């Protein structure tokens, strides 16, 4: 038996409400969350009121908000039925995606097949990764459909995170032989001077965001072994010259800090059987003022070429923290004033 929805007939003297009935009371408890915190998050974001009555949830509010809340709650319950879990991020993603329900778990050898609603789930060793906005979902689709894809937008929109997740899923399913992650070794507005240690010690601080993403998708020992065996390579952009990157998933992060010549050099490394992803934020260029960003030039020169995907994010796609979106919007408003 599935979830049933009951909408009482309208009455001018009563608030319109929708009843959702859930067959499994244990899953309903997980859906509500401790002290009903999951319901509170849905209420806050969709401007509705939700009350529990036995194995039913009563949703009160405007018609559009009630329908959205109903769809979100049904999608979250379906996630629980499939053995998934619910946290604040999952609820936020369900709301952003319109409550169409979770993507199906991919089968072996198909780490990214979309469900009937076109939503993707990316399978990694440690967890399933799902896009949390329509722009993110389109971005993931582009990563699988195009051999060269760009992800451009503000901080916190998941550009690098999702690219690394797709790379890991392709590696563990045998679609590529290795992952190569790179970024320009450029400081963000300050000069750190000479760093101690060997070459790895000197470049690792610049590469740390890439290590952080990998740690989310691979067990520590497995990641260390893959790095040691060169299945995963993390290197600064300057180390890419002269190479042909074949049968690899290649990511260039912080591409706004690559010069035009560096960008051309990197793009021409693409070899057979490989996929390449370029991520960047045009508002965070740390190059000297007289040097143009290679990311901007790539947009201008490559925008009309088929088989190259360009995907754009806005502050509405920020999933890092709600305040990050407001911070970005405030800075954008000041620049445009």
Structural features, described:
This protein has 11 helices and 12 strands. The chain is of the alpha/beta class and 337 residues long. It has helices spanning 25-32, 37-46, 63-81, 88-96, 134-145, 159-172, 199-217, 220-228, 260-267, 294-302, 322-336, and strands spanning 4-6, 17-21, 49-53, 56-60, 122-123, 128-129, 148-152, 178-183, 232-236, 248-252, 275-280, 308-312.
Strand-residue proportion: 15-25%
Structural class: alpha/beta
Termini separation: 56 Å
Whole-angstrom Rg:
23 Å
Q: What count of helical segments does DSSP give?
A: 11
Keywords:
single chain; 337 residues; 6-stranded parallel sheet; 4-stranded antiparallel sheet; globular
Layout of strands and helices, then pairs:
Elements: E1 4-6, E2 17-21, H1 25-32, H2 37-46, E3 49-53, E4 56-60, H3 63-81, H4 88-96, E5 122-123, E6 128-129, H5 134-145, E7 148-152, H6 159-172, E8 178-183, H7 199-217, H8 220-228, E9 232-236, E10 248-252, H9 260-267, E11 275-280, H10 294-302, E12 308-312, H11 322-336
Parallel strand pairs: 7-11, 7-12, 8-9, 8-10, 10-11
Antiparallel strand pairs: 1-2, 2-4, 3-4, 5-6
């Amino acid at each position: 038996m599935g979830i049933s929805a009951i909408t009482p007939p309208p009455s001018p003297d009563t608030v319109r409400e929708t009843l959702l009935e859930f067959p499994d009371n244990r899953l309903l408890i997980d859906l509500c969350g401790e002290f009903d915190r999951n319901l509170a998050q849905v209420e806050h974001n969709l401007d509705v009121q939700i009350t529990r009555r036995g194995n039913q949830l009563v949703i009160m509010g405007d018609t559009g908000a009630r329908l959205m809340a109903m769809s979100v709650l049904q999608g979250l319950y379906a996630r629980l039925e499939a053995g998934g879990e619910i946290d604040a991020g999952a609820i936020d993603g369900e709301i952003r995606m319109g409550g169409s329900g979770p993507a199906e778990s991919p089968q072996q050898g198909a780490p990214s097949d979309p469900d009937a609603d076109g939503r993707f789930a990316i399978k990694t060793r440690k967890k399933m990764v799902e896009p949390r906005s329509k722009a993110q979902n389109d971005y993931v689709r582009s990563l699988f459909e195009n051999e060269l894809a760009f992800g451009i937008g503000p901080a916190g929109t998941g550009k690098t995170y999702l690219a690394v997740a797709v790379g890991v899923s392709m590696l563990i399913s045998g679609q590529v032989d290795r992952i190569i992650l790179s970024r320009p070794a450029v400081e963000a507005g300050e000069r750190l001077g000479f760093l101690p240690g060997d070459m790895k010690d000197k470049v690792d601080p610049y590469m740390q965001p890439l290590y952080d993403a990998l740690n989310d998708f691979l067990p520590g020992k497995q990641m260390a072994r893959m790095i040691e065996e060169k299945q995963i390579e993390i290197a600064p952009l300057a180390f890419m010259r002269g190479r042909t990157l074949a049968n690899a998933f290649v990511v260039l992060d912080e591409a706004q800090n690559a010069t035009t010549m560096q960008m051309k050099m990197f793009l021409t490394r693409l070899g057979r059987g490989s996929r390449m992803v370029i991520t960047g934020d045009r508002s965070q260029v740390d190059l000297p003022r007289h040097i143009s960003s290679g990311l901007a030039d790539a947009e201008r020169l490559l925008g009309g070429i088929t088989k190259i995907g360009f995907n754009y994010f806005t502050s509405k796609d920020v999933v890092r923290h709600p305040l990050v979106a407001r911070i970005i919007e405030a800075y954008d408003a000041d620049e445009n004033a």
